[in-house]
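Case study 2.
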Amino acid sequence: MGIRVTLDRMLLERRMSLTELCDRVGITIANLSILKTGKARAIRFSTLDALCRELKCQPGDILQFAPEDPAPEDGD
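Prediction:
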C-alpha cells in the first residue's frame, strides 16, 4: 500500500508516549500500535480527528502517500 503512517515522528516531536496518546484519544494501545506500525488497513475519521486534536497537527502530518514502484511492463 502506498500510505505511510508517520505517527512515530509526531510522537517524538511532541515528546509524547504511545500510552499517553492512547489515554488522551481513548483508543487501546493495541489498536494504536497497529496503526503506528503501518499494519492497519483503515482508520476512522473520528480516530484521525482525535489524533490530530491531541497532537495539534494536520492529517497530512500523520499520513503520507508514497507510491510503490510500478510493476515492470511485459517485454522489457
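The mean pLDDT is 90.
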